[in-house]
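Entry type: protein chain
Record version: 2
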Amino acid sequence: MNREELAGWLRLALKYEINNAAARRLLAAFGLPSAIFAQSRAALESVVGAEGAKAVLEEPAGFAEKLEATWHWLSAAEANAPRTVLALGDARYPAGALQLPDPPLMLYAIGQVPTPWPDAIAIVGSRNPTAQGLANAREFGASFARAGLTVVSGMALGIDGAAHDGALGAAAPGMLATVAVIGTGADRVYPSQHRDLAHRIAANGIILSEYPIGTPPLAQNFPKRNRLIAALTHGTVVVEAALQSGSLITARQAAEQGKEVFAIPGSIHSPQARGCHALLKDGAKLVETAQDVLEELPQLAHRAKPQRKEKSAGQPADAGDTLLDALGFDPASLDALIARTGIAAPELQARLLELELAGDVARLPGGLFQRVGSG
């Protein structure tokens, strides 16, 4: 895309008074944006009405600066992380997004854009997960990558980041490991803690945004971007989610798009499991392994291996450990464990530390301990 073409698309996309549906009508009637802006007011009014025509003919505020910033962003691409603007109608534009009632006019991508886009699964969940939730997200991401699927998520803290990380660690060389659909401009890394993860995704996957360069992390943009996460995939797996979690928005949008929704069950005492349990009550499919997901999707059934299901993430080597058996899978306090096991506090603390260092137990806020893995 040269600078003149970019200017036309950007000017159309920045006309917030014109929604994507109206913009599509203009494109269908007149062709490329450059042709739209060459039309008379009367011709434009015949498609989008008087107010719409007025909006089209007025240059957006700050347009020159936005164009310069976008062109500079494109020009500053690195060899291992190319930057691309995908306009509606581009052969590389993801087919799944075209099925949306309001597909973005422009998508900003960092990374090698595939043609066609590969089979993908979304993994989403809490920004404040349990240790088990993090382990599950990482293992599901890795399992999908080993099956040749691209993992799509939102690069948020918690479950999203673990899913991306798992896919990056397990993907075969040259494979599109993961896609991060973000709620800011593609020139921003949010949250900042994921700067290293963002670099890894750009080198072995794609960072994708519908928001103009320079867009800060605005709260209203994140729920909207969730429809893209769902659109790029065959189904959505919710690992952990509170009842008010944004992950449930992604799940709802996936269902509205006719996609499958999967949920991993958790403890009835965990707030992070309540969103998943609500989804299960509403008809989501209960899954315990990545294989369960593949077997439920006919278009991906050939990727499922006819063998014993893999262990869940973080399964302890010694599932018969007395202390682990006493701990169970709900968080427990030191006093509760003393009562269950009869072990003196000093010895119990030492054994819990050993299990924590081995990755079999996680220490939670409030002096609680939780087993990690299915045992």
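Comment: The two ends are 54 Å apart (CA to CA).
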